[in-house]
Amino acid sequence: MSFFGLDCVKKKEKETERKIRANDREYNHSFRYATNAIKTSKYNLLTFLPLNLFEQFQRIANAYFLCLLVLQVIPAISSLSWFTTVVPLTLVLTVTAVKDAIDDINRHRSDRKVNNRKAQVLIDGELRSERWMNVQVGDIIRLENNQFVTADLLLLSSSEPLNLVYIETAELDGETNLKVKQALTVTGEMGGSVESLAAFKGEVCCEAPNNRLDRFMGTLVWKEQKYPLDNQSVLLRGCTLRNTDWCFGLVLFAGPETKLMQNCGKSSFKRTSIDRLMNILVLFIFGFLVLMCIILAVGHGIWENYEGSKAMGFVPRTEDVGPAFSAFLTFWSYIIILNTVVPISLYVSMEVIRLGNSYYINWDRLMYYGRSDTPAEARTTTLNEELGQIRYVFSDKTGTLTQNIMTFNKCSINGKTYGDVYDHYTDQRLEITEDMIPVDFSFNSLADPKFQFYDSSLLEAVKLEMVEVQSFFRLLALCHTVMPEEKNKDLVYQAQSPDEGALVTAARNFGFVFRSRTPESLTIVEMGVQRTFDLLAILDFNNVRKRMSVIVRSPEGRLSLYCKGADTIIYQRLHHSCSKLMEETTEHLNEFAGEGLRTLVLAYKDLDEAYFSEWQQRHLEANTALEEREEKLNLLYEEIERDLLLIGATAIEDKLQDGVSQTIEQLAKADIKIWVLTGDKQETAENIGYACNLLREEMSDVFIVAAHSPETVRQELRDARAKMRPGSGEDAFFIPESILGNDPKVVQDESVNGDYGLVISGHSLAFALEGSMELELLRTACMCKTVICCRVTPLQKAQVVELVKRYKKAVTLAIGDGANDVSMIKAAHIGVGISGQEGMQAVLSSDFSFAQFRFLQRLLLVHGRWSYLRMCKFLRYFFYKNFTFTFVHFWYAFFCGFSAQTVYDEGFIALYNLVYTSLPVLGMALFDQDVNDGWSLQYPQLYVPGQLSRYFSKTAFMKCALHSCYSSLVLFFIPYFTVYDSMRSDGKQLADYQSFAVLTQTCLTVAVCVQLSLDLSYWTAVNHLFVWGSLGMYFIVTFTMQSDGLYQLHPKSFQFVGTGRNSMDQFSVWLTVLLTAVLCVLPVLVHRFIFIQLNPTINDTVRFKVRRKKDQRPAPQRRAKIRRSSTRRSGYAFSHAQGYGDLVTSKRFLRRPAITRATAFNPTGRSPAFKPTGRSAGYSPSNKAQNSKQEAEPTELQRYRAVHDSTL
């Protein structure tokens, strides 16, 4: 076991391979495989207190206050009570511990909920209901439809023909399209027989646990035969069984050894950049404190040696205490007295500020998503100011940038485009809005009511029976691998690719309804008439072909090949007679691509019966060949897919989330770089990159790195870097960043001329992330404006984030919505989860969460910037007021014989940070804003100073310390010379200790309040109350504590009787207070005036504009729909796996019979219960309900004004 992070028992040896015997727990237990229980929590009852305190005392200030507490309990050196430190320290530790405990309790609850799920496990020849946590490696489990996969399983058998199962992997990779897995034939023969499965004693030898989601290698030995195993027969934990009544699987990996948990990453204790800087500053301050105390202790020793004997009547001392020992004791006394340079109240106040700014995020109505009733949530309260320093954003694609919804928007048929709506009078194209009436498909009782199309001319062409239009939709209804189902009389399409689902649903609504398929036939309903086509061959898709074809025979006996694919591929195979139509279609494709749509080209040809019979025979021979099967099949496909006749093209929108493009544009203006890390294929990711303006046509170049060897990857990266910055060396430029003896290397930013993009594939990224090449990748990527990584694993996402964190002095943010994003979210400085369609795994692991990507700009540019600005102002002011307070003690020591006497009244010392100065600075840190949120969004450049740590850094701290030193000199010596040899108006002497103390503390209180007033940019009623109320409270408390009544009650505690009243009735005292206040703030005013005139910052410029416009919000920018010309077109967009066509045509693939004509088309209309679930403007492979209309996305300013006006 592990206790306090120490291994108390011998560690399990690292696995190199795994051996499993089915239905033999005793054998498998000997290998000490992990159980299926998971643990994402950090603590338990025994470890919470020590581990939490260990984490909290990593904050150096907490350790400093603990040491101070130890000193205060020693009577010989303590001049202050011990409870002045122990109470606030205990409060800080307790509040933080309670917050951490609540977070971890929630993790425990989540773990218990998962671990206590029920599963049917085959034990002792019968199925038993067991908790997930009790499942072990080697057990056989029965899964039923819509159940989560319990552990990583080897599929043994299923209810479907050919032992297929359908799974949804949304929790793993964020994709909702279904995937197909298939069991071995030898195990599939056991079917659902419990007796056969209980007698199964197969032995599996496979790879050790790892995080590769796309790879599995192993063998099964059964009945003295060895069978190869691959990823096609493995079901991973986190998947969901769909459209399969039942299946049985053998547990290969359980609990923390499953691929899902291997990719989750470890929970880490996140601290902000300011926290890390504060650790350094506290060490420096402590060193400076020790230096001051040494100086004063030496001074005390010298004074005792030369002057101590003369003051024996006033300062009695023990005879046996010499000057040296007295100096030693004085050193520790001054350590206690001067500890206010870093008061414990600083950290209490910081936690309050962070909590308050977290609530602002939770309460922000402009980050509330009404459709799903999801508010923004700050799931941690310790990272708010870090949001104001983000330099790199790492984003998932599916479900984060996109909605994972494909919509059939436009098409081109026989040289004519459909999909745009024109004004009948002006013939101008109209922008489609939610108020526009869509095409009425009521003639078709099988139409999808959620499908929306606005160009009625296409439906009219269908009804007029135009041959080309009917051929177009007939191709869409036949050329695909979609699986239809009838569930409670509802028609459901299950597609491996959402693109296919959208196209088939479009054909369905226009009267060409795909109804059923068998291995040998396809049944469709054309305008109410059922027709069954013989399916003779499927020429399957792969990444090289970028197209798919089907060969069918119509009921009339016509033999045809239908093909769809990328335009560049299809155009090479067209008949020369299509040249004119190809030119017209190319123009339409350019227009579609300019709008960011994904395009496919459709073509067909009629086949000769004799030729096809001969070709079919050769196809059968090639398909059964043992050698060079793929090459032979490709040659046959190339042969028959020639001289095609062009029909037209489709244009599908991979629907972005609302406001994605505007958000990316705003973040780019704020100098925030966005890297997209996605599991999707390269082409799909590129399409989204262009659609949301991450990649642009006007970029100087977009580099594609897709090599398959380390040497080639290295060369491609260097070639890209050489093109961006000719003459750049092979060695990275480092900035030495020495902190506390460590020397981390920081890669320097390198400037380039022009904007560049980088697209790198997963297999290339795997080589590039190796130690010898990671700097090549980082240097090249950081020169680019946009980086897109495709086909990456969850672990690779985290490795990319760690690479940037390690070598760039920058704050990172990761945003995602699926379980595949968890490791990336945990690795980044800030993790943001989007509560979308892919479950809540990302949200549960995140620091902040909301429902839409567009809210990220408000989180960073408004809340993040304000939080950082407020925290920096708070720290600068807090250090100023406390350094000034403390340095006055230092100067006073030279005039009191270094006796460790305090310059202030003890009551003032106790209340200075607690009452007199706490609320004003808290008010500033909670309510201050340099400009309002509207201007923050209007000028994203305001965000840049935070990235460069301009508001608080070591330099800013030193300036603050120098200002405090100057102010302390003013606050000590001006009152000193004011009371020196001075007389009151009544003739009595003013130069006494108590009068000097009251004058000095009054000057100090007024001066720091005036300084705060200058620092405040935004005065609210609360700020006025806190500032002037605290100042008034000082005078009220001073007069009260120095009154005759309290002195009579307790003379020892209230010795300054009448001092305040006697001092403050002197005109010279008030002149002194005014003079010290003016002199303290004068350097600040001069410095600000000069710099605003000579070198104004972006904040100064914007605030000047605000003042000129009387703080009016900028007018909302109406964004016209941008139509950009482009020669780039997306290619074949389907994502289903190669080889799926073979499964479709296999003889045992489906058991569902073809739907009869009577049930396939109901001319009298649908029953009220009929609810088709496929969709185009909204097709979702997960069959989740979608809104039929998408609201037009207003800008952030418009949304603010809408809420602001409603509250007036």
Automatic annotation (TrEMBL):
Residues 1107-1132, 1156-1208 are annotated as: Disordered. Pfam families: Cation_ATPase, PhoLip_ATPase_C, PhoLip_ATPase_N. SUPFAM superfamilies: Calcium ATPase, transduction domain A, Calcium ATPase, transmembrane domain M, HAD-like, Metal cation-transporting ATPase, ATP-binding domain N. Its cofactor is Mg(2+). Residues 843-1096 form the P-type ATPase C-terminal domain. Mg(2+) binds at D396, T398, D817, D821. It is found in: Endomembrane system; Membrane. This is Phospholipid-transporting ATPase. It comes from Astyanax mexicanus (Blind cave fish).
